[in-house]
Amino acid sequence: MAYDTIEFSLRDGVATLVLNRPDRLNSFNEAMHQEVRQALTEVQAAVEAGDCRALLLTGNGRGFCAGQDLSDRAVSPKDGAPGAEMPDLGYSIETYYNPLIRTLTALPVPVVCAVNGVAAGAGANIALACDLVLAARSASFTQAFAKIGLVPDSGGTWQLPRQVGLARAKGLAMLGDKLSAEQAEAWGLIWQVVDDEALRDEAAGLAAHLATQPTRGLALIKQALNESGTNDLDTQLDLERDLQRQAGRTADYREGVAAFMEKRSPKFSGQ
Ligand code: T3D
């Protein structure tokens, strides 16, 4: 399928989705929402068919994603008068942003995000919903919502306190200041900072590596770590037992043990 607002490819087990509205810092308009959704539907089908074993998400230009395209939200003061129609942002969240975060979180393959520049508003939280986040040294993250009277969405109020603690989460959310990629790495918000010119190759290499690994096992790791956010220890121990049972029945586990015993490199099929 041909896309206008994104670039999408599937090669050697890696799906690559590039946000491509660089003159608007890859902010989301309706068309981009629809195309991202369509591409992720293609990814889901390819994962089920065993043709996709990792997803790479990044952006073109100097921004990763500036969240919602605010030119679609401009409301003149008279529009805010009593009785005037204001946009229903809850509808937008329910229709687009929440399903996107749920899809990325549930996707049973690793999602690598290469944050190539500023990640603002929902753009920041979409990046943080990915599994392994690399960021260019010049990139930054901003919970821009507070600056326009909104609340962090796309899972931001869930991710931030868990990843950086409540004090830093409140500072980031209430001030909306830019957090540098290096500070984000130091605070444990992202996996790694990479030099700008190396980012795309580094992220593509990481996704390519993950696509050769035990895909089922990685999906179970993702599930266990995601569920740990809300489980108590007993529930998590039970979950580990159940997931290990599943992992122990995969062809890749058999291959991993055989390769270890035979002192050779494993060749994982993803099954
Ligand atoms: O509405 C709903 O559906 C509810 C859901 C909301 C989710 C959200 O994401 S709400 C938050 C929306 N995003 C923002 O508030 C961020 C707005 N942008 C900025 O604060 C700044 O642009 C940045 C901090 C991201 C980057 O700053 P800077 O100085 O590097 O770049 P810039 O000059 O501000 O932006 C470059 C261009 O991109 C500029 O256009 P121009 O002047 O060159 O024609 C700017 O207007 C445009 N741009 C940046 N962000 C957006 C945008 N255009 C539309 N929407 C944007 N979000």
Could you give a quick summary of the protein structure above?
This protein has 271 residues and is of the alpha/beta class. 45% of the residues lie in helices and 16% in strands. The protein folds into two domains: 6-210, Alpha-Beta Complex (2-enoyl-CoA Hydratase, Chain A, domain 1), CATH 3.90.226; 215-261, Lyase 2-enoyl-coa Hydratase, Chain  A, domain 2 (Orthogonal Bundle), CATH 1.10.12.
Would you give an account of this structure?
With 271 residues, the protein is an alpha/beta fold. It has 2 domains: 6-210, 2-enoyl-CoA Hydratase, Chain A, domain 1, CATH 3.90.226.10; 215-261, Lyase 2-enoyl-coa Hydratase, Chain  A, domain 2 (Orthogonal Bundle). It has helices at 30-48, 89-106, 122-128, 156-164, 166-175, 181-186, 199-210, 215-228, 233-247, 251-261, and strands at 6-11, 14-19, 54-59, 63-65, 111-115, 118-120, 132-136, 140-142, 178-180, 192-194. The strands form 2 sheets. A 6-stranded mixed β-sheet has the order 1-2-3-5-7-10, with helices on both faces. A 4-stranded mixed β-sheet has the order 4-6-8-9. Strand 1 and strand 2 (14-19) form a beta hairpin. Helix 1 runs parallel beside helix 2 (89-106) and helix 8 packs antiparallel against helix 9. The radius of gyration is 20 Å and the shape is globular. Bound molecules: ligand T3D.
Ligand set: ligand T3D
Order of strands in the sheet with most strands:
1-2-3-5-7-10
Based on secondary structure, the structural category is: alpha/beta
Total strands: 10
Which class of the largest domain in CATH terms? Alpha Beta
Instruction: List low-pLDDT spans.
Output: none
Instruction: Give the domain tally.
Output: 2
CATH topology category name of the largest domain = 2-enoyl-CoA Hydratase, Chain A, domain 1
**Percentage of residues in strands:** 15-25%
Report on the biggest sheet.
6 strands, mixed
Radius of gyration: 20 Å
Question: Overall mean pLDDT score?
Answer: 96
Secondary structure tally, helices: 10
Order of helices and strands: EEHEEHEEHEEHHEHEHHHH
CATH superfamily of the largest domain: 2-enoyl-CoA Hydratase, Chain A, domain 1
Distance between the termini: 28 Å
**What is the CATH architecture assignment of the largest domain?**
Alpha-Beta Complex
Helix content: 40-55%
* Approximate shape: globular
